[in-house]
Amino acid sequence: MRTPADVDAVLSLAGVAVPEHGLRDVTVTVHRGARHAVIADPAAGAALVAVLAGEQPVSGGQLLLHGRPLTADRAADGVGFVRLTPRPTSAATVAGAVTAIRRRRPPVRTTPTALDGHQRAAAILRGCGLAEDLLTPVDVLPPGKRRLLDLAIAQASDADLIVIEEPNARLTGRDIHQLSLAVATLPTATAVLYLAGTVTAVAGLASHITAIQEGRSLPPTSIAGLPGRAQHPGELALTGRTERPRLTADPVPIGGRPPSTLQRKAVP
Fold first, then answer.
1. pLDDT tens-digit profile of 85-96?
2. What domains lie within the chain, and their CATH numbers?
3. What is the tally of helices (H) and strands (E) in the chain?
4. Phi, psi of 213, deg, nearest 5
């Protein structure tokens, strides 16, 4: 019998294994509207992207999208990708790349002012910081804007889940800020899964992480809870520490709280 949590799950990976790419036992659940991150080394992260896209077969485990097996066709229909290296598009311009996307759900015309296809594309591109690039050829976009275009394409397709690989890679500071703004304005039911090598890369973007250590996933944890709770060697490494935190008399504020006589301080 499926539980309410199961029904709410957009993506569910259980015991997924791709040994040749360093994935031995990965379990991740992403719920509707979640902002989740998987922290793994680049090779494992890239393999996981390929698995989610249906491009990489697995040797074990189960992958479900909305409770049904995840196939390449279903991934193309329900999952949007912002890859580290964007895939080619046949569209000539930025605006054309978005207006050409087939929506998974028909538009709901509830008012006379409802946006048509071109207006909707322009609004999405504006939200992704590409309002001044509507007529720009896709192949001349800087790397950061090209990745933002992929985010716009994913949004235009009504994707239930958007997978963003290395969210701060090849992006300028302005691009990163624009990415965070664009994600914040996604429909509330849209889930976002980040794949990154460090917690720092998803700080301010994700609320929870699942770390992959030696090919196996650790239990999910809140990013906000990591500084005082990280005890597993893998989690300590992810937060930039090599040893467990120790008590010190130095009054170092943690999480914005007033300093006390004893605080946890990371060992250099």
1. 998 888 899 999
2. 4-89+159-229 (3.40.50.300)
3. 9, 13
4. -120, 120
